[in-house]
Amino acid sequence: MKLIIFDVDGVLRDSAPAGLEGMRRGFVSQGIEFPFSLKDYRTIRSIGKYNNSRNALTLMLALTMAGKGVPSSEGEYDSLVQKHVSGKDEEFIDKARSEYKKFFYSQEAGKFAKILPGVEDALKTLEKYTLTVWSNASKSTIERDMKPIIKYFSFILGGEDVMVKKPSPEGINIIYEKLCTPAGETAYVGDTQVDIQAAKAAGCTSIILLSEAPDRKILKGADLYFNDISEMSKEML
């Protein structure tokens, strides 16, 4: 193993409180109650296409209309959206997402985000590897929230740097080419189903960290599992 590519949220940073607050503001701005918890948010954003903020908001609206709790499969999500959301709801979704983005990309949102415990020490331990980042998150929020640890990474790729976000492997493939490192010498470290899918599609080793995972039973198919980044770094010394 020569190259380690890290996802950001749930691996290096916890921005879920900022994302939840942004979506809450989106709903409340239009007079709609927002009943979702931090665990609900993490579960929704960890599954397939609902890692996308617009799709997540659409699902939250469907769940609110249905009066249901958050299920744990993409198929159930799709059924709820098809049943409860229609074209007449597009204006609500657009306005809610606008409020979400306005908050999430603000400096205020940075106060809700934090670098996860043990991350900097783990990165120091992994210094023999080339360390990079690829995340669906924007590079601006990565730089806002991760200033103390940016120096450990030789390359950072954000959501705006690719045509197609995860579970597409495009970001991993770009880093292969940029650093001239083959798939067989690369690992992608994430915490969600889409991270496993992206790594598998790119042909590299899939590593999952479980400490921030909202629902461990859906994280099937990775090559390696660790409780957290500290455990991973010790095993990869």
Give an overview in words.
With 237 residues, this protein is of the alpha/beta class. The protein has 2 domains: 3-14 and 113-235, HAD superfamily/HAD-like (Rossmann fold), CATH 3.40.50; 16-110. The protein contains 11 helices and 8 strands. A 6-stranded parallel sheet has the order 5-4-1-6-7-8. The protein has a two-stranded antiparallel sheet with strand order 2-3. Helix 1 packs across helix 5 (90-104), helix 3 (53-66) crosses helix 4 and helix 7 (119-125) packs parallel to helix 11.
Report the CATH topology name of the largest domain: Rossmann fold
Estimate the strand proportion: 5-15%
Specify the CATH architecture of the largest domain. Answer: 3-Layer(aba) Sandwich
Mean pLDDT: 95
Q: Would you state the CATH class of the largest domain?
A: Alpha Beta
- Please tally the helical runs, counting DSSP H or I stretches of 4 or more residues: 11
Which H/E pattern describes the elements? EEHHHHHHEHEHEHEHEEH
The figure for the number of domains is 2
Percent range for helical residues?
40-55%
- Oligomer classification: single chain
Strand order of the largest sheet: 5-4-1-6-7-8
Task: Report, as a whole number of angstroms, the end-to-end distance.
Answer: 11 Å
Form type = globular
Structural class: alpha/beta
Largest sheet descriptor: 6 strands, parallel
Q: What is the CATH H-level superfamily of the largest domain?
A: HAD superfamily/HAD-like
Beta strands, count: 8
List segments where confidence is low: pLDDT < 50 over at least 5 consecutive residues.
none
- The Cα radius of gyration reads 18 Å
